[in-house]
Amino acid sequence: QVQLVESGGGLVQAGGSLRLACSASGRTFSNYAMGWFRQAPGKEREFVAGSAWSRSTYYSDSVKGRFTISRDNAKNTVYLQMSSLKPEDTAVYYCAANSRGVGSFNRIDYDYWGQGTQVTVSS
Question: Per the count of CB atoms within 10 A, which of 18, 42, 46, 118 is most buried?
């Protein structure tokens, strides 16, 4: 069982930056693929960024060039650095873990989820 706890959300003006963190329990964190998803009111949860066990990274087109995912396996933590934020980035952001380790854009491939952290970008 893996438990995920997100932190770092908040209110920021458009053009600003935030860094989200997701701390994971368990001793096999380095074997997991990790992902960030988001869900805005009235919309489906969507993929934002991912990091496979190999540390390869991948992004949705909507955040490519603005967001960066990274991981510190020694700290069992994955980060999402968000820059040039836009009002449309407003959502609850969720951290997720995929025990198979292979990167995926598909939320059904992720076994464990955090509770989410709110990010609000004002115009």
Answer: 18
As a dihedral over the C-alpha atoms of residue 26, residue 76, residue 2, residue 94, rounded to 10 degrees, the angle is: 180
Pair of tokens at residue 19:
């860094």
What is the average per-residue pLDDT within 14-30?
A: 92
Question: What are the structure tokens assigned to 36, written together?
Answer: 């960030």
For residue 20, what are the β-bridge partners? 80
Residues contacting residue 83 through CB under 8 Å, at least 6 positions apart: 17, 66, 67, 68
**In a 3-state reduction of DSSP, which class is residue 41?**
coil
- What whole-number distance in Å separates Cα of residue 88 and Cα of residue 90? 5
Q: Which of 116, 88, 87, 97 is nearest to 9 (CA)?
A: 116
Closest CA to 105 of 55, 22, 45: 45
pLDDT, tens only, 33-64? 999 999 999 999 999 999 998 889 999 999 99
Mean of the per-residue pLDDT values of the chain: 95
CA 22 to chain centre: 8
